[in-house]
Amino acid sequence: MTDNTGRPPVGTRLQRIGWETPEGLDEALIRKVVDQFYADARRDPVIGPVFNRVIPDEAWPNHLQTIADFWSSMLLGTGRYAGRPMPKHMAIPELSDAHFTRWLALFRRTVESLCSPDIAALFIERSERIGNSFRMNIAMRRGEDISRMGPLERETPLWTPPRDA
């Protein structure tokens, strides 16, 4: 069953193998994580300029929904995201390990502040796997030797974006 976008309706769960959804992980929490993370990321001195150049202000509401659909598909198995994020990231020439490291550090801080430890661990594991996969694919497509490329080192961000009152 799909809605008028061709996606399964919100709340629909597809069969997943290998793990159960932790108690408390739902669409509302995913959206809260997405909204808070991107609010912080847009103000970050390392990754903010990239986001703000690539995504115009008026496109942010749609982008946030797309990202929420992505995480809903990844963590709840809803199947709402059917996009191809790699080509969009490939089109950003300045992306480097510094950007991925900061993205992961800010994302980790966001989920640790908003989620229970088991849900935060799930978000972190998936985000690190995705981040490392993206950076390796980008490096490979740029013609770089990835044979000795290991996972990113974790960063604790020194800069903390101001929270809206």
CATH level-two architecture of one domain: Orthogonal Bundle
Along the chain, the helix and strand elements come as: HHHHHH
**What is the total tally of β strands?**
0
Please report the number of helical segments: 6
Proportion of strand residues: under 5%
- CATH topology name of one domain: Globin-like
Main sheet attributes: strand count, strand direction, barrel closure: none
The CATH superfamily label of one domain reads Globins
**Poorly predicted spans:** 11-17
Q: Give the overall shape, derived from the CA principal axes.
A: globular
Which CATH class of one domain is shown? Mainly Alpha
Mean pLDDT value:
85
**Span from first to last CA?**
41 Å
Oligomer: single chain
Structural class: mainly alpha
Helix content class: 40-55%
Roughly how many Å is the radius of gyration? 16 Å
Give a structural overview:
With 165 residues, the chain is mainly alpha-helical. The longest helix is centred in the last third of the chain and has 25 residues, at 117-141. Helix 1 crosses helix 2 (48-54), helix 1 (27-43) packs across helix 5 (97-114) and helix 5 (97-114) packs antiparallel against helix 6 (117-141). Helix content is 55%, strand content 0%. The chain has 6 helices and no strands. The radius of gyration is 16 Å and the shape is globular. The protein has helices at 27-43, 48-54, 60-76, 85-90, 97-114, 117-141.
Short description:
This protein is mainly alpha-helical and 165 residues long.
